[in-house]
Amino acid sequence: MTSSTPHPHSPRTPTRIDAVADAYVARSAELDPIFATAVGVPGHDHRMPDLSPAGHEERAAADQAILRELDAAEREQGGPADAVDRVTLAAMRERVGLALELHDSGEPLASLNNIESPVQQLRDVFDLMPTGTTEAWENVASRLTGIPEAVEGYVASLTEAARRGRVAAVRQVREGITQARELAGFDGESFFDTLVRGPEVDAVLDESSACSLVRAELERGAAAARSAYARLADHLERELAPRAPERDAVGRDRYGLFSREFLGAEVDLDETYEWGLDELARIVAEQEAVARKIAGPGASVADAVAALDADPERTLHGTDALRRWMQATADAAIEDLAGTHFDISEPVRTIECRIAPTQTGGIYYTPPSDDFSRPGRMWWSVPADVTEFNTWREKTTVYHEGVPGHHLQCAAAVEARDTLNSWRRLGCWVSGHGEGWALYAERLMADLGHLDDPGDRFGMLDAQRMRAARVVLDIGVHLGKRAPERWGGGTWDAEKAWPFLLANVNMPESFVRFELNRYLGWPGQAPSYKVGQRLWEQARDDARAAAAARGEEFDLRGFHARALSLGSVGLDVLRDALR
Question: What pTM does this model have?
Fold first, then answer.
């Protein structure tokens, strides 16, 4: 169905400020080839970033330079040319300024956790690389051979951070050792071996002498990558682990910096913690009410889970069935929403659902490349011990990762080249904005009737319950707040967090354990989902109230189009722009 409303992106003439922002993306791609691959900036797929202290300094210098250039561009223009310029200036100053604060604190040098640090990034980039041509596989081989130098730079940064007294908690160091050993092939075939010997290679490289040379380079690259990860595992075990603190909590000052990084807003952390407790209680009460509809009067949440899990109509067997169901559900949502509740253009109507090559338990989304040659993708990293999947749990997840969640949000921004510069379209991602929108989208789908089935609604509440519990756990542990008596009283720590999380997350224990370690090692990120949703809902309610004050009917579809047309920005910038 084609929308009859005007497209929110009306062409505009690029400004001097847009030129500075575009140049920043090009410079960022040069300094961080992983970023370049992620957003689809060509010419860097064969390279790895410099992760040494010198590399961090070079990126900081680029950030300092861009702030000076923004000031100069604003002076030359006599101020921002339009609303787009005003948002660009505010968003870039906030994001780049915060990056410099983090650099000055030394945090990037010490980056190590179980989900989002160089340990994972150097491997994960290969999931996004083109593989359809001989040249693409030559890039893969070149990038594999660049892993040893990147690892040496990373080791140097970890060493420098340790010299300054900044070492990740020992729990995260141990996670890094485990993952590095797996990638080194200590316990079986390495990911890198699978990468260079898989069917995708055979589909492109024939038996010619030229292709044989590429195959040989791929094998050498895989061996180099395995060796580099073995070196990393050895460094983490011998040098870093003995210096790593047992304490997981990072404290109020560091947490406040991380919270701003993930939200693009400064919030009252104590008030947010109390709100998290109240929000968790509210969601639990709603979920208990739906449980009684599913399993009968007096039924508990556990009774409803058992009834839903026993329903063969809601059970998928194997990852092939899971992927097909993900794709069908995502496609159906696009078909239902396009032209009715959202303007969804043709390029954005394609999303690709995949089973990830990793087995960590995460579900995530990667945006399309700049030219849409790589579509937006929803990935499911399935643990080795999980072979059955329950659709009641995951329908809301498909909406979160697909449409109207991340895919609509990210792909619409990538497409908006008529109005937004490349930094706004490709270079800026704020977790509270993006993940907050995705949670907002889950609840929106319930409001629109797409989760009226009691099982599906129960699953949405189950996911929201986990996100509310993370606000309590994350702030509670890292700020050393007092735990409710029900959860042991005293000060929050990992030991109290484990039963609390088990009680609020209906997932296999391997998934829950991974999640707990994620919260402990990536402070501030997990709460950004639910806190971001709260701020999105506040922005919508403010817009509704403003419309009422003007005597106008509130246009929810128009609000969504206007909000998404901004791209991903900090939540303070979002609220100001929507006013």
Answer: 0.92
